[in-house]
Amino acid sequence: MGNVVSVLLQPRAVNVDLQTDATLQVDISDALSERDKVKFTVHTKSTLPNFKQNEFSVVRQHEEFIWLHDSFVENEDYAGYIIPPAPPRPDFDASREKLQKLGEGEGSMTKEEFTKMKQELEAEYLAIFKKTVAMHEVFLCRVAAHPVLRKDLNFHVFLEYNQDLSVRGKNKKEKLEDFFKNVVKSADGVLVAGVKDVDDFFEHEKTFLLEYHNRVKDASAKSDRMIRSHKNAADDINRIASSLYTCCVSNRRTLQLLSVVVLQKIEARVAADEDLKLADLLKYYLRESQAAKDLLYRRSRALVDYENANKALDKARAKNRDVLQAETSQQLCCHKFEKISESAKQELIDFKTRRVAAFRKNLVELAELELKHAKGNLQLLQSCLGILKGNT
Amino acid sequence: MIVGQILPHTLPLLHFYFHLNIKNLSSPNNTRKEMCDVTEIEELKINVHVFNVCVCVCVCVCVCFQSEPASLPAEDISTNSNGPKQDSLFDDDPEDLFAEATEEVSLDSPERDVLLSDGPSPAITPITPPTSVITPCIGHAHDDMFTHSSFDEIEEEEGGDSFDMHISVSDPEKVGEFWFTLSLSFLSVSLSQTSMSLFKRNEFSVKRRFSDFLGLHSKLASKYLHIGYIVPPAPEKSIVGMTKVKVGKEDQSSNEFVEKRRSALERYLMRTVKHPVLLKDPDVLQFLESSDLPRAVSTQALSSAGLLRMVNKAADAVNKMTIKMNESDAWFEEKQQHFENLDVQLRKLHASVESLVCHRKELSVNTAQFAKSAAMLGNSEDHTALSRALSQLAEVEEKIDQLHQDQANADFYLFSELLGDYVRLITAVKGVFDHRMKTWQKWQDSQMLLQKKREAEAKLQFTNKPDKLQQAKDEIKELEGKVQQGERDFEQISKTIRKEVSRFEKERVKDFKTIIIKYLESLVQTQQQLIKYWEAFLPEAKAIS
Description:
Strand content of chain A: 5-15%
Largest sheet of chain B: 4 strands, mixed
Distance between the termini of chain B: 71 Å
Radius of gyration of chain B: 30 Å
CATH architecture of the domain at 329-544 in chain B: Up-down Bundle
Number of domains of chain A: 2
Order of helices and strands of chain B: HHEHHHHHHHEEEEEHHHHHHHHH
CATH topology of the largest domain in chain A: Substrate Binding Domain Of Dnak, Chain:A, Domain 2
Strand order of the largest sheet of chain A: 1-2-3-4
Number of helices of chain B: 18
Distance between the termini of chain A: 45 Å
CATH superfamily of the domain at 329-544 in chain B: Arfaptin homology (AH) domain/BAR domain
Largest sheet of chain A: 4 strands, antiparallel
Oligomer: heterodimer
Number of strands of chain A: 4
């Protein structure tokens, strides 16, 4: 089977409810999956004067998305905003392995079984592919929708520069540095979290987010497991379907054939849709709530710095030494802290609105899909039963 | 092992008394007496034979009689007369039609939405016109059926006094303590018609132990298998499962085991009595009716009889490989091939269904866990409407988990057990074919012996030994008789097998069809429940503002 999969995507199926702004519209119009990387075609439509053209496209890879995300995180000016979470790495390993196993086992199964299984695996591959494209697209859209981030220079370069950005993945040393940075950060986070906040709003948000994040993580893990077992059951049904098919053809029990095909379609469909709606939603909000937590952490850090600067200033004033230096640093900290607090409040309120809207949309869609499938299945089953019974 | 040491000492010990509980309203005194007798059971010493620990199950036999609708034999005969024409019809159309159907229905996901709306119609409408043609075909899956000369004969024999007998096995009751418990329950038989000559009463019940069932099977097997009747195999012994039940573990797996065994015994009995010849067998009648049943000794798993059986089985397997039968009848060859294929397919299917049952149970567990998690998430959510919606979602998922559990049970009891039964039945069928080969071998052997004796006699003619000559002549006469008998036996067994196989195939198709219908009905119920749940949830989700 070919290692290159190209997908022509329809207008985006966003996971998150976003307002589309005519001044800057970003989407991923095409994607190409090669052996070990995926190439996304990022298409921009903009009326902003910053860009040379009104409409243009560039090809980007996953690493470049990560580079963009990291540049936001590292930028001090954006400390007061929730940075949209980075899209997860495209992971086709599991699917590729299955396809490979299928190829190896080709000799051991009949032609129909083989084609059927191949079709199923290809559909799975396609589903994963579509999902990863959607994740990358959502990231870009979030950035484009954010009033401050959309103006970022790196972002414009990302959208417009039509040559390779030469962003290399982090080498071992840098990865190790990152690891240590994370360890320090989480330790610090614990320290900083202990500091009681004057502002009620932030105090409440802190406790809420902590609990919410943990629960979303749990729910996400459990929903993954549920969907995995559903998929296993669906795979079994496929196998039963194919063996009953061979059974039927040789014995001409054509009625069994009907029912079997019915069974197969029922299970596979339900599993796929649940996956899309529920699990993706939960996973996305897992990452978002992490980003919100990071924001709060940064704010708390700034608060601690501010308080430390205050103390330092008092000490300096008492000793009457380096007062100016202490004053400037205190002012800086104060300024930083207030800036963060101001934007953070708005960000967190937006986060809540976004979250509620996304959950609503997805839950409604999930319920509607389940209903549609159940009704369709019911109809299929009843007509099948009608035929079977009518034949007595 | 201590248990092993007890074994020889306890062999001479007692056996169990069974009591008949008659649903006899006219004699209350009698029933009271019977009830008193029941308590005696618990005081009786119980057979401690370790390897005979079995579950006693109650077999309820309800027999209702109705004559088979006269239409069936008539239908079959008519198809026979149209034989060749019908063949071609069945040959081409159903296969093509369904090939088409599968193409349509197995479309890829992007088109599935379209499929859902048009779904049932394109896949199904082409099929409806020929159903009337397909109907008579159901019982006769193969062309040979139509062309076989003895077809009419088969139908005539079966078209007589057929009946529906209903047997139900109730849950076992335990009697006795610890290692010595035996489960015992009441078996009630009810006959709705009085004209049944085989039974003394319409409804009755008896108590039976598991080993009694195995005993019945071994008796029937020894009487009928070698002359070509397909004797339904009894459920297998499971020492592990039984031990758990003995020890008194009241957990789910032992309950499942008990239920599994109970339904297996029920199905076994139903199959046995559906067989017209087996039903009339005195052993079967005694099993169903009599209050007192001699204990079946030879069914113990690790007894001498059991070992002997195993040795015989091995010897048979070796013999089978060495017998080179001159198959004069292509029918048998084809049938054997057919059963080989069926065996392979059914085993594969059985494995898949078992795996499905396992995964569905897993799914049920995971759904329950997810439901709890979603409830927690709903609790921590501070937006009230969303919080409520999430709690509702949790409730829906919990109900769905129960649905999955029920579905898994249906998968198992309907599908998986049926397949398991048929895998074993096919082994019995293959055994019957093997017996035919053995009969043929015996016949050939006696023929060869006759030949040798004749040659020996010819040689003796030239020597002057009149008594030896006479002896040889006598032997030859005896052998000639044997050869004739062998030939007759072979003919008989071939005829019986043909009959049996056709009956088996008919039963099989009927069985599968009934089960598939039941299974689909359970699926329908599941879908209907799902619709109910999600419809209740949808307004909640929409209410989030």
